[in-house]
Amino acid sequence: MFVLIVGAGRVGSAVAKTALAAGHQVSVLDEDPLSHERLDVGEEGTWEDRGGRFTVGTALEIDALLEAGVEDADAFIAATDGDNTNLVIAQIAARRFQVERVIVRVMDPLRAAWYAEQGLETISPTAHAIDMFEKALGLD
């Protein structure tokens, strides 16, 4: 499976390294060239030596998505630090490029729920944290 991950922060780079180790083809797109270093931490060899692909560019630009391989992606993960960016690029991947599986990280739990109702596969770490705290405090 070819996976395109946008955002090489803590979440995106961890998912990318896990997917690559599981035998998937992985491309990462990030606007910060230094974020590439996260993909090498704790690993032997560089990201590219291990078979990964890295593209520097802004995901809101179609050319950057194309260079990163969006047309060939079987899965697309939007994991930047901005909800608005993640939601827009997830919809572009799903609607314009018909990527089969699109997963979008949305910090705002209300927005995540609304976009999930519209058909996007959302993950909200904030909603998950709220659930965990409620269970821990016996509020559920």
Automatic annotation (TrEMBL):
**Cellular component GO terms, alphabetical:** plasma membrane
Q: Which residues form a coiled coil?
A: none
Q: Where is the RCK N-terminal domain?
A: 1-130
> Does the record's keyword annotation contain Transport?
yes
Task: Please indicate which superkingdom the organism of origin belongs to.
Answer: Bacteria
Q: What is this protein called?
A: RCK N-terminal domain-containing protein
**Annotated keywords:** Ion transport, Potassium, Potassium transport, Transport
The lineage is:
Bacteria, Bacillati, Actinomycetota, Thermoleophilia, Solirubrobacterales
Q: Which InterPro entries match?
A: K_uptake_TrkA, NAD(P)-bd_dom_sf, RCK_N, Trk_Ktr_HKT_K-transport
Q: Which residues form the signal peptide?
A: none
Q: Which GO terms describe its molecular function?
A: potassium ion transmembrane transporter activity
